[in-house]
Design a protein that fits this description.
By secondary structure, the chain is an all-alpha fold. The protein contains three helices and no strands. The N and C termini lie far apart (about 30 Å). About 25% of the residues are buried. InterPro entries: MFS_trans_sf. This is Siderophore iron transporter mirA.
Length: about 70
């Protein structure tokens, strides 16, 4: 589980410049909507996960979404 947290934190850190650039290109409101949808998808995957791969994918969605909240 700690390895999964490391992967999620790497996704969170690497998402900052990407989400910032996408916010500049597409607009703040659009990125805010995507930032709402990504954790929702992550929580749905977490609720239905049956293995560690699904758990990590859900965490990546959540990490990217929380990064969007921090930037918008």
């Amino acid at each position: 589980m700690s390895a999964a947290r490391v992967v999620m934190n790497i996704a969170r850190i690497s998402a900052y410049p990407i989400i910032a650039k996408l916010g500049d290109v597409f607009g703040r409101a659009e990125m805010f909507i995507l930032s709402i949808l990504k954790p929702v998808v992550g929580y749905a995957i977490w609720a239905a996960c049956t293995n560690i791969t699904q758990y990590i994918v859900a965490g990546i969605f959540d990490a990217i979404g929380s990064t969007g909240f921090a930037l918008t």
